[in-house]
Amino acid sequence: MPLLAVLALTCAMSLEIFDFPPLYGALDAHALWHAASIPVIPYWYRFLVRDARWESRLLRPHLDVKTKRRLS
């Protein structure tokens, strides 16, 4: 899933790199970059949530369950 987000953002970034004049006087490369980056947000957010849950599972054995403080 993060690979899909990275690839989609890379393709969208090519709009910024290969800048072109506005189409029909309204849609330029920067506007299309913003439009192309919108669908990536849910995938990236889902990855961040899953990654945070995985990281918290790694930390959980080192925490006291009641106080949530790190054990020495």
Automatic annotation (TrEMBL):
UniProt KW keywords: Endoplasmic reticulum, GPI-anchor biosynthesis, Membrane, Signal, Transmembrane, Transmembrane helix
Mode of membrane association: Multi-pass membrane protein
GO biological process: GPI anchor biosynthetic process
InterPro entries: Per1-like (IPR007217)
Primary residence: membrane
Alphabetized GO MF terms: hydrolase activity, acting on ester bonds
Subcellular location: Endomembrane system; Endoplasmic reticulum membrane
Pfam families: Per1
CC terms in the record's Gene Ontology section: endoplasmic reticulum membrane
Domain of life assignment: Eukaryota
Protein family (similarity comment): Belongs to the PGAP3 family.
Task performed by this protein: Involved in the lipid remodeling steps of GPI-anchor maturation.
Protein name as catalogued: Post-GPI attachment to proteins factor 3
Source organism: Olpidium bornovanus
